[in-house]
């Protein structure tokens, strides 16, 4: 089984943390969209986060999701929603496991988010293309590398591919950008 995850196009969030905020996607780079659309042809059933930016990206790629899956929403950043990255608190040097457990006030931790995303991905039976968020990609990667998944870069409109052999997941490619 092959799982292809395409992160949505850049969000129009003015450089602020989007998380659960439902913001539009910038789908104006037609060349990048065409390159990524060509890469995901035949990737299997399409499912997407219900976030507007994911639905807009899927439409711009010419894809129609078979279903919108609420569990694939981005991490709820609570009090951090809408903040510019430079306004986020400095958590200091945390081991990956501690960072994965950290919960912003009123939000959810990476571990919380992965606990809702991973069962959806584990239940998939055939090749599937997921249009979702950076957090969704990292949750998928956590099935292979645990909390170290937080260290992966996940660019807008990038593709990550995992394969499952029986019950074992393997990473095929991470962060394949349109310009790569």
Question: What is Rg?
Answer: 15 Å
Total number of β-strand segments? 6
Percent of residues in helical segments? 25-40%
Residue windows where pLDDT falls under 50 for at least 5 positions: none
So how many helices?
5
Number of structural units classed as domains: 1
Superfamily at the CATH H level? Phosphoglycerate mutase-like
Dominant shape: globular
Order of helices and strands: EHEHEHHEHEE
Average pLDDT rating: 97
CATH architecture: 3-Layer(aba) Sandwich
Strand content: 15-25%
Largest sheet: 6 strands, mixed
Short overview:
By secondary structure, this protein is of the alpha/beta class. Helices cover 29% and strands 18% of the residues.
Can you give keywords for this protein?
globular; 18% strand; Histidine phosphatase family protein; alpha/beta; 29% helix; 180 residues; 5 helices; His_PPase_superfam; six-stranded mixed beta sheet; Rossmann fold
Structure overview:
The protein has helices spanning 30-40, 52-60, 96-101, 110-123, 134-145; strands at residues 2-7, 45-48, 67-68, 128-132, 159-165, 168-176. Helix 4 (110-123) packs across helix 5. The chain is α/β, with parallel strands linked by helices. Helices cover 29% and strands 18% of the residues. It has a single domain (2-81, 94-176), classed as 3-Layer(aba) Sandwich (Rossmann fold). The radius of gyration is 15 Å and the shape is globular.
């Amino acid at each position: 089984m092959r799982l292809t995850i395409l992160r949505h196009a850049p969000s129009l969030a003015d450089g602020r943390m989007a998380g659960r905020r439902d913001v539009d996607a910038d789908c104006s780079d037609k060349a990048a969209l065409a390159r990524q659309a060509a890469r995901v042809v035949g990737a299997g059933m399409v499912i997407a986060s219900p976030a507007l930016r994911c639905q807009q990206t899927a439409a711009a790629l010419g894809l129609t999701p078979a279903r919108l899956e609420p569990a694939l929403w981005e991490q709820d950043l609570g009090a951090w929603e809408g903040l510019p990255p430079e306004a986020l608190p400095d958590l200091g040097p945390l081991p990956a496991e501690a960072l994965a457990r950290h919960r912003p006030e009123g939000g959810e931790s990476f571990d919380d988010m992965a606990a809702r995303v991973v069962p959806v991905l584990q239940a998939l039976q055939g090749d599937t293309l997921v249009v979702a968020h950076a957090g969704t990609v990292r949750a998928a990667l956590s099935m292979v590398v645990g909390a170290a998944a937080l260290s992966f870069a996940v660019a807008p409109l990038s593709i990550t591919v995992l394969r499952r052999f029986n019950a074992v997941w393997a990473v095929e490619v991470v962060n394949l950008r349109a310009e790569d």
